[in-house]
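User: Structure please.
Assistant: Input sequence and predicted structure:
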Amino acid sequence: MTHDANFNFWYAVQNTHILLSPTSNLETFGSTTLNYHLVTEQMDTVEKIRIREGRVKAYRPEIMTPNSFLDTLLEGFGEEANAYGDWLRKHEQELCLLKYGFKIAKEHISEEIVTGTLEQIAEEVKDAVSKGADPLAAVVIGVENPWEVCLLKLMVDVVQKSSGPNIQDFRNHGIFSAEDLSLADQKSEIEQTFNQAERDPSTMQGLYEKLQNANVFQQYQDRFFALVKRHGGR
């Protein structure tokens, strides 16, 4: 990615907030369709809020071995998001708890523009969606451009949440070898520590030590130093 595209990508990621997460996990042995409600503020108009509704379909995850590689395909996301897809492919190991080989297809349903503050409208959408009791519904506050990256952030978060139950399913069906399970568990623990460090800079030292003790610091060093930079070098 160019410098501007890289900045826009991380700007979107850092300004994506999931107000309501799906209560159901991704299916281990089948596809899953999530219903998203994305709330963004128009940049050139005061208190004009866009609400996008649509579906994101995650196909059956394929657990990959560390030496395997499968491209993540983004169907229907447009040229700009496909550029971010290139970034995802290069950093797939960093973004997923497991080597999920799922495809994402975006289906846009509707959008509307309403008047109000971002926080007010987002809470109203959250309340309305919560009443529907849809276990696969999500409400996300994001950015107007590039808004599609907000959906990618949502999917990464859902993958992280689903990986534990998915691992257990694969374990129960005897699909993983003992070595694969050990590597998957290690990766899950590292991702949880990264998530904690993103929220709390004081845990960066613990993250560093975990990566060193697991002999994987070189694999994660670009991501680690990027996180140090976002925390202001702390």
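The beta strands are 17-20, 32-41, 48-58, 74-75, 104-115, 137-141.
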